[in-house]
């Protein structure tokens, strides 16, 4: 069998409509067979329902000091988007590869997989590890269990490279995020007697206003130099939609919204979760003082740690050396890089394509960026084939 090119593999990966709401197992089957054809054994880490899986593999010697190439297999939906061609077929036109996921981020997945036969022939001194996740697009839900298992089962890699589209620039930081579903239950009475009821809508407004106050405080607070790299350089709290109430003259029984936080790396996502829940508990006690049935339920929608720029980080240093990019970049979108870092890996983001093309109709990746990505991984294999870092 001749080795598949990165382009061959990209065509194949895009042909699996692995929208986050659907199973990714057909894609995982294909990747597993591909790796097996090269004598590489892959390990699956399933979701609880067994409908989706992460996949990881170690290529080369089972030694510490290798490098993880990390990508996600899921893509965002195409419904309601005006595409000029079939989103699940790669179309090459004017130096661009069109198709859902070409940019975010099956292009990088394909590059990593195409490198496997080259890595095997190169006689690696330290391993190349490949990590492919599910459910990244819906809150980085899949990767943590894979990272935990890799950390346990494989020799520890010196660096994790997360190939999200960065225009092949070295990105060493991103904000963390958490979304907390909040459901207030009030007590319905006619609004003429509102002092005997609890309006879930009016109580929810207090939490929304708490977010307004936090934003104002955060904006005014002093910040350290790392946080100053972000735009904006403070933690933001946001409510995008709110649903509640049944009539203009009834105190609302229900009100629901998601409180979303984007946290600068200097502040912990967990810390903001606790602050918010303390405010929720305080308000709930107030509501229950009026009527014992009133309450507030919360549930975590997603929880993604930030990527904190590392001081002399191994991953960043390696990515700079291989790419020649010596500037500092941070991004505002969350990725699995923060999860690798939280799992004890030195982590950095560098991958082909521009995030502006991600999630769009007629999503594309330029051939130029695709080739730059291939060149980067070629250099990585050279690096891993030499004696020491
Ligand atoms: Zn992505």
Description of the molecule:
The protein is of the alpha/beta class and 389 residues long. It is built from nine helices and 15 strands. It has helices spanning 6-15, 25-37, 102-122, 143-153, 200-220, 269-290, 314-323, 337-342, 367-385; strands at residues 42-46, 53-59, 67-72, 91-93, 96-98, 128-133, 159-162, 171-174, 176-185, 236-244, 254-263, 295-304, 329-331, 347-349, 364-366. It has a six-stranded mixed β-sheet. A four-stranded antiparallel β-sheet has the order 10-11-9-12, with helices on one face. It has a three-stranded antiparallel β-sheet with strand order 4-5-15. β1 (42-46) and β2 form a beta hairpin. α1 packs across α3 (102-122). The longest helix is centred in the C-terminal third of the chain and has 22 residues, at 269-290. The radius of gyration is 23 Å and the shape is elongated. The chain starts with 5 loop residues before the first helix and ends with a helix. The mean pLDDT is 95. The chain binds zinc ion (ZN). Residues 72, 104-105, 136, 164 line the site of zinc ion (ZN). Zinc ion (ZN) is lined by residues 72, 104-105, 136, 164.
What's the short version?
The protein has helices spanning 6-15, 25-37, 102-122, 143-153, 200-220, 269-290, 314-323, 337-342, 367-385, and strands at 42-46, 53-59, 67-72, 91-93, 96-98, 128-133, 159-162, 171-174, 176-185, 236-244, 254-263, 295-304, 329-331, 347-349, 364-366. The protein has 389 residues and is of the alpha/beta class.
């Amino acid at each position: 069998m001749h080795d598949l090119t990165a382009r061959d593999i990209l065509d194949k990966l895009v042909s699996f409509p692995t929208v986050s709401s659907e199973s990714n197992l057909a894609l995982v089957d294909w990747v597993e067979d591909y790796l097996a054809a090269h004598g590489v054994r892959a390990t699956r880490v399933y979701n609880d329902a067994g409908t989706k899986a992460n996949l990881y593999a170690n290529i080369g010697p089972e030694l510490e000091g290798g490098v993880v190439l990390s990508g996600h297999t899921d893509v965002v939906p195409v419904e309601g988007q005006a595409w000029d061609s079939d989103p699940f077929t790669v179309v090459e036109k004017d130096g661009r590869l069109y198709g859902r996921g070409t940019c975010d981020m099956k292009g990088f997945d394909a590059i990593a997989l195409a490198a496997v036969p080259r890595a095997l022939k190169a006689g690696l001194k330290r391993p190349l590890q490949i990590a492919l996740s599910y459910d990244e697009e819906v809150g980085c839900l899949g990767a943590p269990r894979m990272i935990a298992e890799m950390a346990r089962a494989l020799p520890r890699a010196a660096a994790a490279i997360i190939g999200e589209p960065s225009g092949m620039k070295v990105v060493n930081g991103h904000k963390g995020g958490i979304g907390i579903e909040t459901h207030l239950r009030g007590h319905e009475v006619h609004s003429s007697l509102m002092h005997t009821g609890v309006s879930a809508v009016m109580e929810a407004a207090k939490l929304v206003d708490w977010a307004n106050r936090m934003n104002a405080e955060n904006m005014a607070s002093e910040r350290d130099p790392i946080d100053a790299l972000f735009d904006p350089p403070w933690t933001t709290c946001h409510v995008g939609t709110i649903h509640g109430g049944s009539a203009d003259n009834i105190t609302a029984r229900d009100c629901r919204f998601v409180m979303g936080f984007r946290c600068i790396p200097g502040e912990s996502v967990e810390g903001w979760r606790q602050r918010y829940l303390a405010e929720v508990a305080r308000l709930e006690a107030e509501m229950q003082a009026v009527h014992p049935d009133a309450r507030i339920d919360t549930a975590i929608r997603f929880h993604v740690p930030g990527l904190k720029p590392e001081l002399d980080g191994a991953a960043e240093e390696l990515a700079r050396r291989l790419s020649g990019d010596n500037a500092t970049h941070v991004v505002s979108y969350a990725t699995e890089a923060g999860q690798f870092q939280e799992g004890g890996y030195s982590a950095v983001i560098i991958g082909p394509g521009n995030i502006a093309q991600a999630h769009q109709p007629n999503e594309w990746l330029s051939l130029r960026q695709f080739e730059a990505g291939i060149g980067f991984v070629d250099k990585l294999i050279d690096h891993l084939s030499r004696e020491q870092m």
